[in-house]
Amino acid sequence: EPHPLAVVNPAAAPKLLTLPAEKAALVQAQGIDQFVLMPFTPAVAQLDAEAFVGRLCDEYGMHELVMGYDHGFGRGRAGDVELVERLARQRDFRMAVVDAVRDNGQPISSTLIRSGVAHGDLDSAARWLGRPYAIRGKVVRGAGRGRTIGIPTINLEPPDARKLLPPDGVYAVSVTVGKGETGNAKRYGGMMNQGPRPTFGDQARTLEVHLFDFDGELYGETVDVEWVQRLRDVQAFPSRDALVAQLERDRQAARATLNR
Fold first, then answer.
1. What is the pTM of this model?
2. How does residue 228 score in pLDDT terms, banded at 50, 70 and 90?
């Protein structure tokens, strides 16, 4: 952390599928006791592969290294499977190589998944990830307009600029409230407006979610929002009544999608 390209070539750094806090939650959900992100700095970028492995052994007490079949690391990406096999024998650690996972013969990569998310192909992205694409965020106070039209919403804090988002629009979503590790997590269906709110002259991108069958306050809470299906584009409405009518149609469409 951050992505290596953000240090060595910032202009080429890709948007992220999982932010650090999201990675930690996903890893810990698998029963891992300790999760550590190594800071990637200009000094780390200058380490050759042998020095990098040495640091993993000496500073992190590495017993086993798991790497992808085509992964390269260290200065010039010179650290490949053959080199690590030799270092494993020298430094007495185990290694495991993960072969390509394929979908209809196509290797699944982060580049492929990013393309799917960026183009709104959420079904393919979920299949490749093995889970729905999601974002974790804190609930903050909004303008409160939703309550005045009978559709209360929760507003997420502006997302980290590094996070990859699908195209703006109105989505059917699934939202987890509470912490799974404490056993009090609860899931709700909902619909989310991602993008500006042109009816109110607000051009800033926001993530605003109406939760189905929920009545309460979540200010300051952290929630996980899964994109399920895009329902329509963001659009401006000529009147309050026109907006309310469309939101009711969105609610019906979102419920139907989530009940499939």
1. 0.92
2. very high
DSSP character string of 169-217: EEEEEEEEES-GGGT--EEEEEEEEEEEEGGGTEEEEEEEEEETT--S-
Stretch (H or E) spanning 106: strand 106-107
Please answer whether residues 194 and 250 qualify as being in contact, where contact means their C-beta atoms are separated by less than 8 angstroms: no
In order of 53, 67, 153, the CA distances from 60 in angstroms are 10, 16, 44
* Residue 182 pLDDT level (bands cut at 50, 70, 90): low
Q: What is the DSSP letter of 102?
A: E
Statement: residue 249 has pLDDT above 80: yes
Q: Does residue 120 surpass a pLDDT of 90?
A: yes
Task: Sketch out the chain's domains with CATH numbers.
Answer: 4-103 (3.40.50.620), 132-258 (2.40.30.30)
Phi-psi label, residue 205: left if phi above 0, alpha if psi -120 to 50, beta otherwise? beta
180 has pLDDT over 70: no
Q: What is the largest CA-CA distance in the chain?
A: 72
- Structure token pair of residue 44: 């780390």
Pairing of strands 64-68, 186-197: unpaired
CB-facing half-sphere around the CA of 94: CA atoms within 13 A: 3
Strand partners, 137: 223
Per-residue CA distances from 71 to 83, 147, 156, 228 (Å): 11, 50, 35, 31
Residue the block writes with tokens 């010179």 = 78
Tell me: the pLDDT tens digits for 52-107?
A: 999 999 999 999 999 999 999 999 899 999 999 999 999 999 999 999 999 999 99
